[in-house]
Design brief:
Blueprint: H1 4-15, E1 34-36, E2 41-43, H2 45-51, E3 60-62, H3 70-78, H4 80-88, H5 105-117, H6 128-131, E4 134-142, E5 149-157, E6 162-166, E7 176-179, E8 184-187, H7 189-192, E9 198-204, E10 207-214, H8 218-239, H9 245-248, E11 258-264, E12 274-281, E13 284-288, E14 298-301, E15 310-313, E16 326-331, E17 336-341, H10 344-359, H11 378-385, H12 391-396
Antiparallel strand pairs: 1-2, 1-3, 4-5, 4-10, 5-6, 6-7, 8-9, 9-10, 11-12, 11-17, 12-13, 13-14, 15-16, 16-17
Helix pairs in contact: 1-3
The structure holds zinc ion.
Length: about 400
């Protein structure tokens, strides 16, 4: 006769079949193997580790490795992922970033704390730090010249439509004013060698600027992130009154399609190859001398195959001056861009990143600069022309493969 414990283990495995239980309650990863027996949810191995940080609320055990009592299984059966999420995710604001298993540890940890520990999605007043339309505080900002992080005061104000920061604590004039309309924020723990490191990108004179920040407190950092998302959401709702949530939400913040080092040459292809850091941000390919540079040395727009953009492995036969052996050629209507990767894997990954955007048809708003007659995209066009644009709408003003104001070509 099977022991009670075996029976309980089997019942738990059967509970995985119930709708909602087949994916981690917190990050959505498939086939969770851990259970919080105080919350009654199935979670993945990675999230189970984060639940251990809130041991006063959540106690986790392995479905397969730990002994289970009948009453524990009974309780888990009575709750389950769908019911728990209906309670703990009652009022997640539309703009709030819901992390997946692909996201950095900080985002996932703070999501779990916000959900179960602070119960931010059960009590609307607890969302004030990111939903009030105004936020100010001190963040460590990386200095442009020496790379040292210095304490700077930041203010995000939806009313003024900007994020700004001040060099001196009593300064009246901000050091930089970043329009919410072109703002992006992404967590970059590896690039900054800091688990709370964040990159903020904005456009100035239609070229990309970067700043790098962090705060020791993980909640502070994620609150800033969601405050920026909230501000962008409210801005976009006004800018595109007819747009649905599902159209706007992907535009609040975005991760880069790919980043990494490649070698590049200039427009004549005889300039010699130099190692540079590349960032593929939607259709905008930028390069930097250093991954933490304040601005790109050059930017190029990658269109779609319908507009004669192609990516090919290898370099033209007569190419010289590269050290890395794995070439890539991007053919655009104007010229060819040549790159060299250090490894075959890098080459494959970059080609697939370029292919992703080349295979994607251009969105109507990406042609905005090309259109001059009235159409259903009129609002997008007028916004693009009045400098209140989304980053990729701004790009569409000149959809030729040249964007940098300083460089007529992606040059060395
Ligand atoms: Zn998970």
């Amino acid at each position: 006769m099977a022991s009670d414990q075996e029976q309980n283990g089997k019942r738990l495995i059967q509970l995985l079949e119930k709708p909602g239980n087949g994916n981690c309650a917190d990050c959505g990863a498939a086939d969770p193997e851990w259970v919080s027996y105080t919350l009654g949810v199935f979670v993945c191995h990675s999230c189970s580790g984060l639940h251990r940080n809130i041991a006063q609320i959540s106690k986790v055990k392995s479905i397969l490795l730990d002994p289970w009592s009948s009453s524990q299984v009974e309780f888990v059966d009575s709750v389950g992922n769908d019911a728990a999420n209906a309670k703990y995710e009652q009022i997640v604001p539309a703009f709030f970033y819901r992390p997946t298993y692909k996201d950095c540890l900080l985002l996932r940890e703070q999501w779990i704390r916000a959900k179960y520990e602070r119960k931010e999605f059960m009590y609307v007043e607890r969302q004030e730090p990111y939903s009030a339309g105004y936020r100010e505080g001190f963040l460590w900002k990386r200095g442009r010249d020496n790379g040292q992080f210095l304490s700077r005061k930041f203010i995000l104000t939806e009313r003024e439509g900007v994020l700004k920061y001040f060099n001196k604590h009593d300064a009246r004039e901000p050091k930089a004013i970043m329009k919410i309309s072109t703002l992006n924020a992404s967590f970059q723990p590896e690039k900054l060698c800091n688990p709370h490191g964040m990159q903020i990108t904005y456009l100035k004179d239609n070229s990309t600027r970067n700043i790098f920040i962090y705060h020791e407190d993980g909640k502070e950092m994620v609150d800033w992130f969601n405050a920026i998302r909230a501000a962008r959401f409210h801005y976009l709702q006004v800018a595109f009154p007819g747009a649905s949530h599902s159209e706007l939400l992907p535009k609040l913040t975005r991760s880069y399609i790919k980043e990494g080092f490649m070698e590049k040459t200039g427009p004549k292809h005889t300039e010699g190859f130099k190692k540079r850091w590349f960032t593929m941000d939607d259709r905008r390919l930028m390069y930097f001398k250093d991954p933490l540079d304040a601005y790109a040395r050059g930017e190029v727009f990658i269109g779609s195959k319908e507009n004669s953009y192609t990516v090919l492995p290898g370099l033209p036969g007569n190419t010289q001056g590269y050290r890395w052996q794995f070439g890539i050629t991007i053919v655009t209507p104007d010229r060819k861009f040549l790159f060299a990767c250090e490894t075959e894997k890098d080459q494959k990954d970059w080609i697939s990143a370029f292919q992703t955007v080349i295979d994607r048809p251009m969105l109507p708003q990406e042609y905005a600069g090309k259109l001059n007659t009235k159409s259903s995209f009129n609002s997008l066009i007028s916004i693009a022309e009045s400098d209140l644009s989304l980053p990729f709408v701004a790009l569409s003003l000149q959809w030729r493969p040249i964007l940098s104001t300083n460089h007529n070509r992606l040059s060395v």
